């Protein structure tokens, strides 16, 4: 059995722009609908969604037959949780609230086996198809996506050092938290959040060859970012898409039945 290629990481390395979606309904059934839609990547969220290890496992199983890789965002930079998520087959992790190069290095270390890191070794798990992938240990670092999130002004100030950590695959900007840190709580699209902070920092990192990403809810703005300095952009969440679809149906029916 061959090691499955991480198409998201390969795309970043090849400079292909990729658009994705956030997955937060904590439902394997809903995730399977997302998985077959054709996104370049998806992120199963544990930080702000009611996911646990079992629900994430079910969603990874839903993504498995489809080309869209289901990355996972753990709720924290926790090496024990990271180990368990990698053992159940997460092809990559998106680490929230990374504040320094040291924290980024800890995230990378948690994803790697000794002597390169601290991940505990299990001989048989879902990630290696229960021992059926003979070159799993040799290739797992090569295929693992490690994305670190910059979400505060403190992190913005040391973005260069965070991005320079060996093993980091990409840097993700969290506009909602950055906006809150700037005094714009609940207003992530405030112009100065992007023009003064996120985009100049993203451009600087991109110019150094580091893929940068983010999450926005405006499709036109998502496309603008991808056509400029950003390498990967999540352009919605499946929960928001569902809510908007329900609102549209209800609104249309009320208009038609007045």
Descriptive keywords:
258 residues, alpha/beta, TIM Barrel, 8-stranded parallel β-sheet, 12 helices, 45% helix, globular
Note the topology.
Layout: H1 7-14, E1 18-23, H2 28-35, E2 41-45, H3 53-63, E3 70-73, H4 79-87, E4 92-95, H5 101-111, H6 136-143, E5 145-150, H7 153-157, H8 159-163, E6 170-173, H9 175-181, H10 191-207, E7 212-215, H11 219-226, E8 232-237, H12 238-256
Parallel strand pairs: 1-2, 1-8, 2-3, 4-5, 5-6, 6-7, 7-8
Give a verbal description of the structure.
The chain has 258 residues and is an alpha/beta fold. Helix content is 45%, strand content 15%. It has an eight-stranded parallel beta sheet with strand order 3-2-1-8-7-6-5-4. Helix 2 links the parallel strand 1 and strand 2. Helix 2 packs parallel to helix 3 and helix 4 packs parallel to helix 5. The chain is globular. The mean pLDDT is 97.
The profile of the biggest β sheet is: 8 strands, parallel
Helical coverage, percent range: 40-55%
CATH class: Alpha Beta
| SS strand fraction | 15-25%
Question: In a few lines, what is going on in this structure?
Answer:
With 258 residues, the protein is α/β, with parallel strands linked by helices.
């Amino acid at each position: 059995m061959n090691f499955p290629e991480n198409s998201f990481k390969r795309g970043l390395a090849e400079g292909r722009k990729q658009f994705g979606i956030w997955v937060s309904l904590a439902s394997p059934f809903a995730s399977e609908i997302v998985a077959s839609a054709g996104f370049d990547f998806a992120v199963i969220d544990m930080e702000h969604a009611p996911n646990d290890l079992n629900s994430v496992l079910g969603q990874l199983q839903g993504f498995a037959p489809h080309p869209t890789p289901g990355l996972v965002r753990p709720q924290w930079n926790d090496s024990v949780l990271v180990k368990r998520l990698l053992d159940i087959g997460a092809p990559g992790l998106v680490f929230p609230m990374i504040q320094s190069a040291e924290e980024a290095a800890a995230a990378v270390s948690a994803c790697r086996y000794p002597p390169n890191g601290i991940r505990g070794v299990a001989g048989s798990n879902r990630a290696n198809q229960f021992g059926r992938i003979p070159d799993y240990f040799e290739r797992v670092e090569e295929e693992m996506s490690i994305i670190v999130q910059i979400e505060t002004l403190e992190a913005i100030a040391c973005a260069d050092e965070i991005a320079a950590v060996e093993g980091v695959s990409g840097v993700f900007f969290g506009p909602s938290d950055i906006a809150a840190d700037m005094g714009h709580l609940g207003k992530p699209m405030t112009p100065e959040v992007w023009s003064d902070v996120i985009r100049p920092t993203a451009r600087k990192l991109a110019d150094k060859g580091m893929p940068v990403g983010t999450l926005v809810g405006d499709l036109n703005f998502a496309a603008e970012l991808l056509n400029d300095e950003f390498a990967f952009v999540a352009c919605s969440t499946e929960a928001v898409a569902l809510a908007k679809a329900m609102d549209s149906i209800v609104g249309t029916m009320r208009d038609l039945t007045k």
